[in-house]
Amino acid sequence: MTRKGNPQLVVLSAPSGAGKTTICKKLVERNPDFRISVSATTRPPRPGEVNGVDYYFISPEEFQQKIARGEFLEYENVHGNYYGTLRETVEELLDNGFTVLFDIDVNGALKIKQQYPDAILIFIRPPSLEELKRRLRKRKTEKPEEIEKRLQRLPEEYQKAVFFDYEVVNDDLLRTLLTIEKIIRTKQLTGTHVHQ
Ligand code: ADP
Ligand code: 5GP
């Protein structure tokens, strides 16, 4: 069954600092039919993050209860904290015709694809390792040891990128946005993938 508006599921994964939060926010600003799937996490909020907007910030006990009740489409322990995609959030957005963007890790992305084979998986690459480190430092949200923990995950992330439908290098932000929009609109209109 095709839902009203032919909404798509679009998973964006990337090494931490490559720019996927920025990309997701801009995509939603530019496309009124796009929404972000707000995940639940046990990570404490960063300065400026808002409960219910950036994440649902919950305790480890609440997270375990949600696992037990089957409320997650998928969940993962990433960098020592739990993160999970809420089934109800996603179904409600799809029912209302919204294309759903997921800013989740590579393992979560592959689990979404198992459950929704039509989901579009896009791996975002930084232009270089040096630029990734520069962006992580510039963001000033993690201590050096936290940044190190994020960089240690790179090999696993790059290994799993081969299972994604697309890889996009986030060099110029506007170019990245236009590339992703073209991928989504093509799939929505023709049901097929863009040739890269
Ligand atoms: P992620 O969500 O992947 O961890 P963020 O979206 O927080 O990454 O981006 C990390 C930093 O890089 C932020 O300071 C952001 O402003 C910056 N950034 C994102 N995209 C670009 C880009 N195309 N060019 C330069 N800086 C970028
Ligand atoms: P951050 O702490 O920087 O917001 O996120 C850390 C990592 O967790 C990022 O790679 C982010 O994409 C991922 N993440 C956020 N929410 C979810 C989720 O619901 N499920 C999974 N599997 N990963 C998530």
Characterise this structure:
The protein has 196 residues and is of the alpha/beta class. It has one domain: Rossmann fold (3-Layer(aba) Sandwich), CATH 3.40.50.300. The protein is 43% helix and 20% strand. The protein contains 8 helices and 9 strands. It has helices at 20-30, 60-68, 87-95, 106-115, 129-139, 144-152, 154-160, 173-190; strands spanning 9-13, 34-36, 40-41, 56-57, 72-78, 81-86, 99-103, 120-125, 166-169. The strands form 2 sheets. The chain has a 5-stranded parallel β-sheet with strand order 2-7-1-8-9, sandwiched between helices. The two termini are 29 Å apart. The structure holds adenosine-5'-diphosphate (ADP) and guanosine-5'-monophosphate. The site of adenosine-5'-diphosphate has 13 residues, from α1 and α5.
What is the secondary structure topology, with strand pairs?
Blueprint: E1 9-13, H1 20-30, E2 34-36, E3 40-41, E4 56-57, H2 60-68, E5 72-78, E6 81-86, H3 87-95, E7 99-103, H4 106-115, E8 120-125, H5 129-139, H6 144-152, H7 154-160, E9 166-169, H8 173-190
Parallel strand pairs: 1-7, 1-8, 2-7, 3-4, 8-9
Antiparallel strand pairs: 3-6, 5-6
The structure holds adenosine-5'-diphosphate and guanosine-5'-monophosphate.
Guanosine-5'-monophosphate binds next to strand 5, strand 6 and helix 4.
